[in-house]
Amino acid sequence: MRKLLFSLLPCLAYTTCLAQAPELSHKVLDFGTVPLRSKNHSSVTLYNRTAQPIVIRAVTVDCTCTKASWAKTPVLPGDSTRIAIQFNPTSTGAFYKTLRISTHPPAPLPLEVVLRGKVAP
User: Fold this and answer.
1) I need a surface site. Which of 81, 85, 91, 118 has the fewest CB within 10 A?
2) Mean of the per-residue pLDDT values for the chain?
C-alpha cells in the first residue's frame, strides 16, 4: 500500500501544478479567407490561474507578417490580460502560424496559439 501511495505522489503533484497554470482563451484562431495585404486583427486572453503574479516576457511568432502587443504590467492571481494580434499577409495560400507566449515565472506547459486560414489574391 505504501509503495502505491508513493508511486501516485508524482502524478498528484503534476495534476496540481497543471490546475494552477496560466490558461489561454483560444488554442486556435481561424481567420478564414482573408485578402492579400489586408490588416486582420484578433486577440486571445491570458488568465492567471496561479497563486502568484505573472509577467508576459515575450510573444514570438513564425513570421514577420504577424505582430502581437500586450500590457507590460504583471497579471495578478485571478486576473486576465488581452494579447492583441495583427496579421498582415504578404503571400497567397494557406497559412498555419504558431504564436508562443513566454512568461515569468515560466508556465508548466507551453502557451501557444495556432493562427490558420487562407490568403486569397
Assistant:
1) 91
2) 90
Residue 58, CA distances (Å) to 50, 111, 114 in order:
19, 11, 16
CB atoms closer than 10 angstroms to residue 6 = 9
Which tens digits make up the pLDDT trace of 86-101?
A: 999 999 999 999 999 9
How far apart are the C-alpha atoms of 108 and 99, rounded to whole Å? 17
Per the CB < 8 A criterion, the answer to whether 77 and 46 are in contact is no
Q: Secondary structure of the chain: what % helix, strand, coil (to 5)? A: 15, 50, 35
DSSP one-letter code for 26 = -
- In this prediction the pTM is 0.82
Q: Are strands 93-104 and 111-120 parallel, antiparallel or unpaired?
A: antiparallel
> CA–CA distance from 83 to each of 49, 69, 86, 112 (Å)?
17, 6, 10, 12
